[in-house]
C-alpha cells in the first residue's frame, strides 16, 4: 500500500530528517516529484535516507560515474517522478535522494568537515543564482509598467514581477541559512579535521 | 582530503584509505576495511571517499587498476608516492605522540 504526502521544505536537512522519521515508522519513500512524496510500507527503520546536491547534472558522465560508485556502496537512488508532462523533474536542479538499508550500517555521504563545506557551498551558489535570476526577471516585469501607455497585460507583468521578487527574497534567505551552516563548520575546521 | 601543501597532515580518512590500498580494493571494500581497521570508529561517507579517491589518483598516491573489463567496479592500489606519504605521516604522528607522552603522560584515565 502506498501513501502520498505533500510537503514543502526549504532546508534539505529538515527534509532528510523527516524522511528518516517516516522510515523509522515503517514508511519508506519510494518516489519523489516536486513536493510530492510517495511512501511504501516497509520494515520499521529499514532504510536510511540522505539528500545530496550533485556536482554535475545527473545526466553528465561524471555524475553517472558517481552514481555508479554510490550504487556499489549499497546506496540506491530514489526515483524522481516527472513533473509538468515530463519536462521537469526534481533532479533538474541536481538534487538527488539516496537510501541505503540500515542493516549496512550508518549511512552518511559526507563524513568530514571539508567535504560537508563543499557540499553546502554548491547549494549556496544554487540558491544565490536562482535569487539573482528571479530578481532580474522580476525587475524587468515591473519595468514594463513604466513603458508608454500601460495595458492590462502590463499590470499582469507587474504582479508577476512582485511575485518573482518575493521568490528571490526567499532564495536569499535560504542562502543565508546555508551560509550560517558553512561558517559554523569553518570555525570547527580551525581546531579539528 | 589532503592538504594542498606537500607535507601537511593527512586526514584520518586519507591515512586509512592509503593503508587499505596496500591490497587492491574497490570503493565499498575500502569503506568496510577502514571501519574494520579503526574498530568501527571511522565510517567514511561514500561522497567523501569518492572525492578523496579522485584527489589521490590525481596526486599519484594511488592508481586505478586496469583489471577485468567486464566489471564496472574500479579497483585502486597504493603507489610508491602513496607509501612515502604514509611514512611521512607516521613520522609526524610519532613526533606528536612522543611529545604528548613526554609532557602530559600516558593514556587518558
UniProtKB/TrEMBL annotation, chain A:
The chain crosses the membrane at residues 126-147, 153-174. Keywords: Membrane, Transmembrane, Transmembrane helix. This is DUF2812 domain-containing protein.
UniProtKB/TrEMBL annotation, chain B:
InterPro entries: Metal_resp_DNA-bind_regulator, Tscrpt_reg_PadR_N, WH-like_DNA-bd_sf, WH_DNA-bd_sf. The keyword Membrane applies. It comes from the Bacteria. This is Transcriptional regulator, PadR family. SUPFAM superfamilies: Winged helix' DNA-binding domain. The keyword RNA-binding does not apply. It comes from Paenibacillus typhae. It holds the Pfam family PadR. Residues 19-86 form the Transcription regulator PadR N-terminal domain. The chain crosses the membrane at residues 13-31. Keywords: Membrane, Transmembrane, Transmembrane helix.
Amino acid at each position: 500500500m502506498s501513501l502520498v504526502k505533500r510537503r514543502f521544505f526549504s532546508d534539505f536537512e529538515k527534509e532528510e530528517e523527516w524522511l528518516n522519521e517516516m522510515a523509522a515508522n515503517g514508511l519508506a519513500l519510494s518516489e519523489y516529484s516536486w513536493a510530492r512524496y510517495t511512501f511504501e510500507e516497509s520494515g520499521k527503520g529499514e532504510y536510511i535516507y540522505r539528500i545530496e546536491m550533485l556536482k554535475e547534472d545527473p545526466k553528465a558522465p561524471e555524475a553517472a560515474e558517481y552514481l555508479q560508485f554510490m550504487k556499489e556502496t549499497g546506496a540506491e537512488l530514489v526515483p524522481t517522478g516527472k513533473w509538468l508532462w515530463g519536462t521537469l523533474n526534481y533532479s533538474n536542479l541536481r538534487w538527488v535522494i539516496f537510501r541505503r538499508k540500515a542493516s549496512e550500517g550508518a549511512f552518511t555521504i559526507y563524513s568530514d568537515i571539508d567535504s560537508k563545506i563543499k557540499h553546502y557551498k554548491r547549494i549556496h551558489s544554487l540558491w544565490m543564482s536562482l535569487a539573482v535570476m528571479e530578481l532580474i526577471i522580476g525587475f524587468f516585469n515591473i519595468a514594463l509598467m513604466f513603458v508608454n501607455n500601460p495595458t492590462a497585460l502590463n499590470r499582469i507583468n507587474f504582479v508577476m514581477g512582485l511575485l518573482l521578487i518575493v521568490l528571490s527574497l526567499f532564495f536569499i534567505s535560504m542562502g543565508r541559512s546555508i551560509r550560517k551552516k558553512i561558517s559554523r563548520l569553518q570555525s570547527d575546521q580551525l581546531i579539528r579535521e | 582530503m589532503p592538504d594542498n601543501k606537500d607535507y601537511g597532515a593527512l586526514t584520518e580518512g586519507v591515512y586509512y584509505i592509503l593503508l587499505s590500498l596496500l591490497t587492491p580494493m574497490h570503493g565499498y571494500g575500502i569503506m568496510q576495511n577502514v571501519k574494520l581497521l579503526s574498530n568501527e570508529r571511522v565510517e567514511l561517507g561514500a561522497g567523501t571517499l569518492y572525492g578523496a579517491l579522485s584527489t589521490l589518483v590525481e596526486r599519484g598516491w594511488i592508481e586505478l587498476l586496469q583489471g577485468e573489463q567486464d566489471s564496472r567496479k574500479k579497483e585502486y592500489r597504493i603507489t610508491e608516492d602513496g607509501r612515502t606519504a604514509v611514512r611521512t605521516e607516521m613520522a609526524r604522528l610519532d613526533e606528536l605522540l612522543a611529545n604528548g607522552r613526554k609532557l602530559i603522560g600516558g593514556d587518558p584515565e
